[in-house]
Specification:
Blueprint lengths: L1 H9 L6 E4 L4 E3 L3 H9 L4 E5 L2 E3 L6 H19 L10 E4 H6 L11 H9 L4 E4 L5 E3 L2 H6 L1 H17 L11
Parallel strand pairs: 3-6, 4-7
Antiparallel strand pairs: 1-5, 2-7, 3-5
Length: 171
């Protein structure tokens, strides 16, 4: 996965930013404007926001999982552990290039790795209004194993620098 993300972004010709979302995700109406405003500050190298589930927004399980993800994400940013969720972030192109982009060897946690490396060269912003809604296809298929996989993978990556190689596509 990271190898494809790296190749996709490496060949983009944007003047100042590498923006990342995907086809399963809908972003807020002022998404690009919020990103542009953040990058008006030259010290900002990345901006990211929360990701909630598009389907099942009225079902307690999906609302709870989205809320829990937001709390974990926000808490990490408050503690200075800046990582991005792959469906909702932008990085300054010069910073992306300076750190070598995505690590193509990673199958998962490539967004976490990118966030950790980029925060070393500039300011990362978490904007709670930079909202993205994404498909819950993987969560619907895997239920709690989805969440436990990501928690274990995050901890493994934080402690060892190695991510899980067991992350199968769900279509």
């Amino acid at each position: 996965a990271a190898a494809q993300h790296h190749a996709d972004l490496r060949h983009k010709r944007e003047a100042y930013a590498q923006i990342r979302t995907n086809a399963d995700t809908a972003v807020c109406s002022d998404w690009l404007e919020r990103i542009a405003r953040a990058f008006a500050d030259p010290s900002v190298v990345c901006i990211c926001g929360p990701v909630y589930f598009l389907e099942g927004r009225t079902q307690f399980f999906y609302r709870f999982m989205g809320w829990l993800s937001f709390i974990i994400f926000w808490t990490n940013h408050a503690l200075g552990n800046n990582y991005m969720i792959g469906e909702n972030f932008a990085v300054r192109k010069s910073a992306y290039q300076a750190i070598g982009g995505f690590n193509p060897a990673l199958i998962t946690a490539e967004d976490v790795d990118l966030g950790y490396r980029i925060q070393k060269i500039g300011k990362c912003i978490f904007d709670p209004e930079l909202v993205a809604l994404t498909s819950n296809r993987r969560l619907a298929h895997e239920k709690f194993s989805f969440f436990t996989h990501h928690i274990k993978n995050f901890i493994r990556f934080k402690l060892t620098g190695h991510a899980s190689s067991n992350f199968k596509p769900v279509r």
